[in-house]
Amino acid sequence: MDLNADFSQRVVVHSDTIDWQPSPIEGVDRRMLDRIGDEVARATTIVRYAPGSRFSAHTHTGGEEFIVLDGVFQDEHGDYPAGTYVRNPPTTSHTPGSKAGCTIFVKLWQFDMADRTQFHKDMEAELGAPTEGVATTILHRDAREVVTYSKLEPGAVTTSQAPGGIEVLVIGGAVTVDGETLKRNDWLRLPDGETLTATAGDQGARLWIKTGHLPHAKAPAV
Length: 222
Fold this sequence. Notes:
Blueprint: E1 2-3, E2 11-14, E3 21-22, E4 28-37, E5 41-49, E6 53-54, E7 58-60, E8 64-75, E9 78-81, E10 84-88, E11 92-94, E12 97-98, E13 102-108, E14 119-122, H1 123-126, E15 134-141, E16 146-152, E17 157-160, E18 166-177, E19 180-183, E20 186-190, E21 196-211
Antiparallel strand pairs: 1-4, 2-20, 3-4, 4-5, 5-13, 6-12, 7-11, 8-9, 8-10, 8-13, 10-14, 15-16, 16-21, 17-21, 18-19, 18-20, 18-21
């Protein structure tokens, strides 16, 4: 299937308004944000694990990147609470699940196929002091993309003119972009050449942002 697969178009998804769709694994449901492919897909998805749900062991041929939004995600490598950013590059394998339940934002088949760097980070712990109300840390950078986490004080503004497209997930609080309010779990994708200007609401905001990656978007090589 193709979903929001025209990367030359601006896309906003208010994901909490979308119905959950079952995955092939009982107890694991998902909200699809963009997708090229069927069960093997270049995909951006919010995934919900019911308490006690678990996938069987599998290898991520095209890599997996995710953020734990709530609860605790678990596999044989460790327990990852809300606020953890994880990169499992191509060829890595695991058996994911959650004893208590969790929700993650996950991107599949979007790695440099030569990348072999596996890591996880506590995003809040990476932040430094704010500048003009915005604290930002670089979670990952390579020749294809830059991934950041930002925490905005109420009314603070963050901007980006990065080439190669811009993708934003609102992890907490709210921002206004081009007159539209984006709240927790809302997702925005701007095509190459557009500028991001996001103004935090009264409670501030926490944003995950990826830039530079859209020219590399393609279906999985399977």
